[in-house]
Amino acid sequence: MRPEPLGDQWRIVAPGFARGGAQARGALLLTVVVVTLLPSCASFIRPEGDGGWNAERRRQEVEQRAAAAGATTEPSRRVSPEPVAAPGSADAAQAPAATAEGGEALTPLDLRTALDLAAKGNRRIAEAERQLDVSREQVFDTRGRLLPATTGQGRYTWYTAAQTTQVNLEPGIVPPGTVPPNVTVREQDFGTVNGTIALPLDLSGELWHALRAAQAGYRGEAARVWATRLEQDLAVIRAYFDLLAAERLREVTAQTVAVNREQVSVANDQYTHGRLTKNGLLVAQVALSQSEQELRGRDLTIDQARWALNQAIGREVNAPTRVIDVRARPALPSEGEALEAAYADNPVLRALIEEQQRLEETETSLARSRLPRLNAGGAIDYSSAQIFQPQTVGSGFLGFTWDLGTDTRREAEIAQAKIEADQNRVRVERELRELEEAVRSAHAATVERLSALDAAEVAVGQAEENLRIRRVQFDVGRAQSEDVLDAERRLAEQRATLATALYSAHARRADLQRLMGRPLDELPAVSGGR
């Protein structure tokens, strides 16, 4: 570098940047910057950006997530509709192994195994657990406000020249002809390092109340995770028993189809011999057609229940899942015991209670922020420049910051926290009322289904006898086709009630267990068999 005169001043000029060369290099540098930033202009200007991922990248992302989720595009897989008997029963010893289309052997799935699979593979449970992890880190973030904060900063700086100054001395201080000393006030290059540690002194309790609020939020999120777990377990149980009920209803419908076919055969014979009118034959044929269509609908219901079960337990949605039959009756607590357990352990109610504490602690923390915030700590500074001594200097400090709240924002936040706390109290009262109604309803529904099961066991025998009598009357001409079909309809209704009442009772008993906040994989022992 060399000095050049500029009027009454001097400037420093680098050898490579003089005159036209500097302008050319400046233009070149500007061109390089423009060319570099031009492709990102769309991302900077447009609200949607430049697209980011292209269509192929998005397709790959969907394919990767689909593979992880077990979502496929394969055709639906039909499973033989016969239910699997419970292990150890006489039916299980005689029943052949279940297979899907293509001869694939299937392993029957019991209810406990289904719940274990849901705990590991259900996506809603996994999502709720990740949210709990977020809440835990939020607690750690709030706790960190009570711990010392340590920061470090360093910089090495290069200047074009050192800064100096001449000392103007009074005449006579130095001998005549002595050149005044030239003092360097800033070296041409040097480095600085600074380290600071600061500890908040929470004498007002603001930070401690904020930590308690965060911890209450974590406990509330844990209760919501448990509520999600119970909700998804209930979905598994409902899908499990829906599948069993659909298979049993298909059996009933298949029996009805067989009876209607036999009835059509008899009606054809009687019509041929002039013992039955054309209308009577048409009635029997229409009944057969309707029952065959109902059988196809039962197949669809089985597939839908199987898909729902696979979705809940985390298997491939189209997996050919089979389930083991359940024949035992569920045990049922008293209504008072169910209500007492629900008030103590219901996770939704517990989450609201934790939310109440979180809101009240937040309100207290905001109120304490009206006081000064104290902090104390120390620092150490080092500089490689040698113009000052010592080069390393330590320090300690005690200070405060005080937000006087003249912008009224803090008071608005405190008022908002109070209102939210009052609102949550009303929400707790509402939840208590809704919980009581739900528990009483689930308990009564379970009792009703068990009663319907008992009644259907007797009614099936009566309906079978009624159908036998109507058939005998039809054979001798004392009854019409409508009479026989009416008897068949009554028998089918009672068989359907018998086939589904037990499964409905189990599902509603599980709903009661969920409201009580108890694990659904620990349902009370069954009370006897069927």
Overview of the molecule:
It is a single chain. The chain is of the alpha+beta class and 530 residues long. The protein folds into three domains: 2-48, no CATH class; 105-137 and 212-355 and 416-522, Outer membrane efflux proteins (OEP) (Up-down Bundle), CATH 1.20.1600; 150-201 and 372-404, Single Sheet (Outer membrane efflux proteins (OEP)). The protein contains twelve helices and eight strands. The strands form three sheets. Strands 3-6-7-8 form a four-stranded antiparallel beta sheet, with no helix packed on it. Strands 1-2 form a two-stranded antiparallel ribbon. Strands 4-5 form a two-stranded antiparallel sheet. Strand 1 and strand 2 form a beta hairpin. The chain starts with a strand and ends in a 14-residue tail after the last helix. The model is unreliable at 1-19, 88-98 and 525-530 (pLDDT under 50).
